[in-house]
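Figure 2 data, in text form.
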Amino acid sequence: MALARGKFGVEYNPRQLEREPSGFGWVVAVIALALFVLLTWTLVRRIRTHRQEAELVSTESPIQAVDSPDEPDVDQPTLPSPESLTSLTFQTFQPLNTELSRRTPKVRNLLMRLEEAERRRDVEMAVTTIETLRDLPGSPVADLDDSLARRLGALNIRRLFNLRNAQWVKEEKVGRGDTASRIAAEHGSTFASLARLNGGKEKVERIVIGQTIYVMNHPRFNLVLHRRTRTADLSLNGKFFKRYDLQGAVKAREGSYEMPEKRRDFWSGVGTCFKPEDRLEIDTLLPKGTPILVSEL
C-alpha cells in the first residue's frame, strides 16, 4: 500500500504505485546470471578435461588399471602409440625393384597389394602379402626375397612388442608371490622380453597383486646361422620371424647347439658377432635352451 503525508495527515497516494522501479535490481540480476553461466562453463570444462586425461591414460598404458585399494599405486608407463611406431617402420623401407611388366599376373597382383598395404600402413595386410609372396612355388620373387625378409622382420618386431599380437602374447594376472622373472619362466620366455612388453625393467620390478601384464606365451624360437651368406634367420613357432646380418665368418662347425644361460661365452665360442642392437634383441628374445643351427649355406 502506498502511503504518504498529506493535507489531513497520512493519506493513501495511488500515484506512488505508478512510479517506475529503480534499475539497480536489473543490474544485480544480470550480474548474478553472468556469474552462474561462468561457473557452469568452468565446471563443464573441468569435467571434459578429466575425461580426456582418463581416456589418454587408458589407451597409452600397456598395463591395465586394476582396482586394488590395499595395494600401493604404480605409475603407468607412457609409450608412443602403436600407430606412430608402425608409421616409422614403414618409412624405413626402401622401394622394391618390382619391374611389374616381367612378373606373372599373380605376382603382379601381390606386389601391388603389398604397395597398397605399405601406403595404408596396414601391418597385417603387409605381413600376409609378404608371406604369400615368399611361399609361392618356384620362387618367382627370389630376387626380392632378401628385401621381403627384411620387411617382414621389421613388421614382426612391431607386431610383437608394440601391437602385442595375440598369436605370441597373452595377458597374465599377477598372483600372490609372483615376480616378473617367475611369470616369464613359467611361460617359457625371458625376463627381458617381458620387461620390453610392459614398459621397461623398472615397471615390471614393481608389479602388484591383481595387476595385468603381457608375457610371451611359450615361444618356440629357432636360430639358423648361415656361413656362406653371413646371415642369421630367426623363426618363431615354425615360421620365419626376422633376418640378421653377421659381422664376420661363423667359426663353429656345422651342427646344432643350444642357447645356454651365459650368452657372452656362447657367442664367442660359436665365433660369430652381431651388431650391438641385434645382439641385444636376440638375447632379449631367446630363452635358455633355444636351438641354434650352424649351416653351410
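Caption note: Confidence is low (pLDDT under 50) at residues 52-83.
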